[in-house]
Design a protein that fits this description.
Elements lengths: L13 H15 L11 H8 L3 H13 L3 E2 L7 E2 L17 H4 L4 E2 L12 H14 L14 H15 L8 E4 L2 H12 L5 E6 L3 H9 L4 E7 L2 E2 L10 E6 L13 H14 L2 E6 L22 E6 L11 E4 L5 H9 L7 H12 L2 H28 L4 E3 L6 E5 L7 H9 L2 E2 L1 E2 L13 E5 L5 H17 L2
Parallel strand pairs: 3-14, 5-6, 5-8, 8-9, 9-10
Antiparallel strand pairs: 1-2, 4-11, 6-7, 10-11, 12-13, 13-16, 15-16
Helix pairs in contact: 1-3, 2-3, 5-11, 6-11, 7-8, 7-10, 12-14
The structure holds pyridoxal-5'-phosphate.
Length: about 475
């Protein structure tokens, strides 16, 4: 009847199948307002089910207000139920995250094909099997002690940092950390000084929190600290000193000193976002700014690039005076991170699997960077110049005399090329028009070569 097909093998009871079919018909408008439903007897006969089954479905529809039943009158569809179909779910998604590109130069993407997925699954399984029962309860907003201890040991062996596990607070990634930092420091019109250009995602995080932003220009060595003069009502400076996003510079020692002096004199915090410094291709990772003043610098780390973004684990190293308020904010926001991934990550760190994975990926990414530079020379000759330090998963390229704006990005996308003009990440527009960002970490050498060729051909056409 009415095209309702019942699945007698389904775990869903028959009355619920009838109820759901009728409900969908009222919402979609297939059953119109005031339309009369068949009697339960008639319906039961047509569907070859017991009358009780149909009665149960009708009672549910009546209880939820989809149909109306009055004594002595037939059961009718209620008024005002029809809802227009929403656009298909694909149109809600960010087109760039679902499309397959001929040249995919998106930034910030580690190569997930090399992630030791099986090993991780085993560690996750082991972690949940061995997890003490009390960790199934509320384990606190700071993160499980095993993970904090392992992060401390890892920071020491990878960056020479000495940190107390009590100062580590686990978060759901760097973005989440910045949300909490904004709640912690901003408010009442207090401003945040940000590198310009900087990652639009991080910029949006602060803007969405209502923080007024003051852009501080960046050159190929990072934030131009000369511009940090006498700032009223400032609460923090956001920097990526180990590998500036997006231009790639390492902040020189003299600028670091200026920054620390500025923070002390003006009693503001420095938010150090160390998002990908594991991947440096000449020399060891840069010593964090945090080491210069642990009471003025809030260090933000993430495992999104070293492991995988969906892990959603990052951390902050927090000055003591901020601990109490952080605990309060986190407890009353999302309470804590789940313990299972934390425990698996602690195991991954303890057994040095993370160190080995990073070592392997550093070799692979370093080689891809070399292939990218070589392909650029082969296709573009001397028309370009690489910006920044040999690190990370992307490269900023300067093409003197060329201009790349939003229109260029869109027409590239239209032609299957995903590449980001630096301008996209600029707060004050117009100062980096001739630079493009090329993400290469997630691409095989052949994909890089092919992508560079496609980009070259497209740029030639659009001269
Ligand atoms: C500069 C910078 N900070 C932070 C992040 C985000 O890290 P997470 O995934 O931990 O939120 C990114 C991501 O690409 C980034 O480029």
């Amino acid at each position: 009847m009415w095209g309702i097909e019942l699945n007698r093998q389904s775990e869903l009871p028959l009355w619920r199948q009838i109820y759901q079919s009728l409900r969908e018909m009222t919402i979609s408008g297939q059953l119109k307002a005031s339309e009369v439903l068949p009697s339960t007897r008639e319906f039961a006969k047509a569907l070859e089910v017991s009358r009780n089954t149909v009665c149960e479905a009708y009672e549910m529809l009546i209880a939820e207000g989809f149909v109306i039943s009055r004594q002595g009158a037939p059961t009718r569809v209620a008024e005002g139920l029809c809802v227009e179909n929403p656009p298909s779910s694909a149109s809600y998604e960010n087109i760039e995250s679902v499309r397959i590109f001929s040249a995919d130069f998106r930034t910030g993407r580690p190569d997930l094909r090399h992630f030791p997925r099986f090993l991780w699954q085993q560690m996750l399984h082991k972690a949940s099997e061995e997890m003490p029962l009390e960790q199934y309860g509320y384990t606190g907003p700071q993160g499980i002690p095993e993970l904090r201890k392992e992060i401390v040991a890892w920071l020491f062996r990878s960056r020479g940092l000495k940190v107390d596990p009590q100062d580590i607070f686990i978060t759901a990634g760097a973005t989440h950390a910045l949300h909490l930092i904004a709640d912690l420091l901003c408010g009442e019109g207090r401003k945040i000084l940000m590198e310009d250009p900087c990652h639009t995602g991080m910029l949006r995080t602060f803007i969405n929190k209502g923080c007024p932003i003051v852009p501080i220009p960046v050159d190929e060595h990072g934030m131009q600290t000369d511009y940090l003069t006498n700032r009223e009502n400032v609460c923090a400076v956001y920097v990526t000193p180990s590998h500036q996003f997006p231009l790639g510079g390492i902040l020189p020692a003299s600028r670091r000193a200026t920054l620390i002096r500025f923070a002390r004199e003006n009693e503001v915090y420095i938010v150090e976002d160390d998002y990908d410094s594991e991947f440096r291709y000449c020399g060891e990772p840069i010593a964090p700014l945090f080491a210069m003043d642990p009471q003025r610098v809030i260090y933000v780390g993430t495992f999104s690039k070293a492991l995988f973004p969906a892990l959603r684990i990052g951390y902050v190293i927090l000055p003591r005076q901020l601990h109490k308020r952080w605990r309060d904010l986190r407890t009353h926001a999302d309470v804590q991170n789940p313990p299972f991934e934390q425990a698996a990550l602690a195991g991954f760190l303890r057994t040095r699997k993370l160190d080995r994975h990073i070592q392997k990926m550093r070799r692979i990414y370093g080689e891809r960077r070399r292939v990218l530079l070589e392909s650029l020379t082969e296709t573009f000759g001397s028309e370009w110049r690489a910006y920044g330090d040999a690190a990370g998963l992307h490269l900023a390229i300067d093409f003197p005399g060329r201009y790349f704006e939003e229109e260029f990005r869109k027409s590239c996308l239209h032609n299957g090329i995903c590449v980001t003009p630096v301008e996209y990440h600029c707060i004050q527009k117009g100062r980096h028009l001739n630079k493009l960002l090329i993400g290469y970490g997630h691409l095989e050498p052949a994909e890089i070569r092919n992508g560079v060729q496609l980009l070259h051909d497209f740029m030639k056409e659009t001269i």
